[in-house]
Amino acid sequence: MSDITYQQARKLGLKEVKSRNGRGEDPYLPALEALLPGVNSLSEVDLGSIRIDIDQVAGTRNVGRREAFSASFYPLLEENSEFAAKWSRLAASHLKEGIRDPITAVEYLNRFYVVEGHKRVSVLRFFGAATVRAEVKRLLPPKSEDTEIRVYYEFLDFYKVTHISCIRLTHLGSYPLLLDLLCGEDRTVWDEDRQRSFLSGVYRFRKVYKDSPLGSALTQDGALVRYLQIFGPAALLSRTPGELKTDLAAIVPELNSIKNDSSPVLVTDPAEAPRGIISRLVHPGVKELRAAFLHDKDPETSFWTYAHEQGRVAAQASLEGRVETTGVFRMEDRDFDETIRELRDAGYNMVFTTTSRLLPATLTAAAAYQDVKFLNCSVNVSHPILRCYYPRMYEAKFLTGIIAGAMCDSDVVRYISDYPAYSTLASINAFALGVKTVSPRSRVLLHWSSVTDAKGPMERSGVAAVSGQDSLVRDARRRNLGLFLRLDGKLVHAASSSWRWSTFYRKIFESVLDGSWSDLNSTSEQGQSINYWWGLKAGVVDVQLGDCVPPGTAQLVQLLRRQIADGGFRPFDGPLYDQSGTLRIQTGQVLTPLQILEMDWLVDNVDGEIPSLDRLTPPARELVKIQDAMEDTPET
What we know:
Blueprint: H1 4-22, H2 32-35, E1 43-53, E2 57-60, H3 82-97, E3 103-108, E4 111-116, H4 118-126, E5 131-140, H5 147-162, H6 174-183, H7 192-211, H8 220-231, H9 233-238, H10 241-250, H11 252-259, E6 265-267, H12 277-282, E7 289-294, H13 303-318, E8 323-328, H14 336-345, E9 350-353, H15 359-368, E10 373-376, E11 387-389, H16 394-407, E12 412-417, H17 424-438, E13 443-448, E14 465-467, E15 483-487, E16 490-499, H18 501-514, H19 521-525, E17 530-532, E18 541-545, H20 551-566, E19 576-577, E20 583-585, H21 593-597, E21 606-607, H22 618-631
Parallel strand pairs: 2-4, 3-5, 6-17, 7-8, 7-9, 9-10, 10-11, 11-17, 12-13, 12-14, 13-21
Antiparallel strand pairs: 1-5, 3-4, 14-15, 15-16, 16-18, 19-20
């Protein structure tokens, strides 16, 4: 009489075969040599004896054993067979003392195929084991541009440091993102203790996630990456299952964002239409507001911080005591969570962090303190539990380009930018198009101030106009900011594209006070992040003209300014070509705000290049990596 355990396992196997046949699917074990005819020619790397996730055991190496098992490794042979007897003895041994002998397998594209030990895998799968010990040889596919192959080689870099193979990600960039989250700049190879600690956190997270209502929303490893983005590795290792459940409940909008593959909602102008009576009843607004501004530096050493502080103070003064604000400086030297807790206990219910360097900490705080409104000064960020903001500077840059092209007495204009972040390339291109509008033969020489090995365009002679850093306040000429021209042998201030933080902060305060802030809450709850990207129309950016600008040029600039603000003129109307001569924007094509924001090319009258990450100074590299990490969407 056959063993009852084998009968139960075989019943599951026969049921799976019937179900798969009904769906027109192969019911038996996948065989790697059938899936990959050239498998014998692949290079091999001996990984030795490692513990692998049993869910990653995808099939068998050779076709000979595949019909003895269903696709999920349940046995299929008759109950009175020698195979069944061996399977039953192995099952009894497992229940008594566990299966100790490792299987032999090959790994291909982070899936494992059994060479020897099929029944051991079958028994372990039936009893719900999580892992199995295996002697593994890795089969390396040739490198190619195929997405799956490229992701796999990113996985190999991840594995080289962690020796963790159970994380399954399929999007380009996901493994480098995960490695950065876990290790930062430290690429020291993990020892067994660190591996065990991390895997313990992973399996605990998977169990909680699987048992939650979100368990079928997206892949568990995609959810894991987003969890690590928000709470960090320390939380994964230390949280109890109950605390993990609470954390997951706090980031439902974040997980919905992944599930829906949501891009940020770019709010390009403040709401101008009067709110309906239903909206006012549902979201009536507040009478008083307390807002804290957190800066990584202080106003004495940072012009950026100084400008935001001026905007904060002016915005508060304009609202006649309805808003109380405070500034907190040098957050780089403070405990972020402790600072937020103290502010919240003091009654502050709105927090602005004024640099993307504080974005990761702001994200963690937004998950922990859901009764506080958080905003970070960055853009194109896909995190719905906070809001982000940044000026639409390319509109003003186009206008300063008009001035440079009209007044420059040579065909060479220099443009100095800081580092390649979102919206930066749109500003460069808009300036170059402004130059080209009035001076078709002029070239714009691009220089990056944050590039360590900068050369090339800056060495060219004949430069008679320089567009430098934007003006954050009104004293542009005194601080040598904006556009300068060499006229009659002297360097003369011609124009500045300026940032009006006081206007932005006042309008955001007003939206909370009148309740219109909450009109966008349902968007966030559905998983879409709110990014304010206001420009000329909102009064958040503007252009200041120097005394040297001729009346005719000034009139042209003011005319175009009004038309851009009203939507009657678009700087990026086609046809537009990039530096290689490729048509990027066709005649009549209207770019969406997101397409403008995510420009990753330069127009054809720009001389220079977009620097790679490794050429940037460490501070600039840090900021770019933070913005990339915060915009990345893990696996759906």
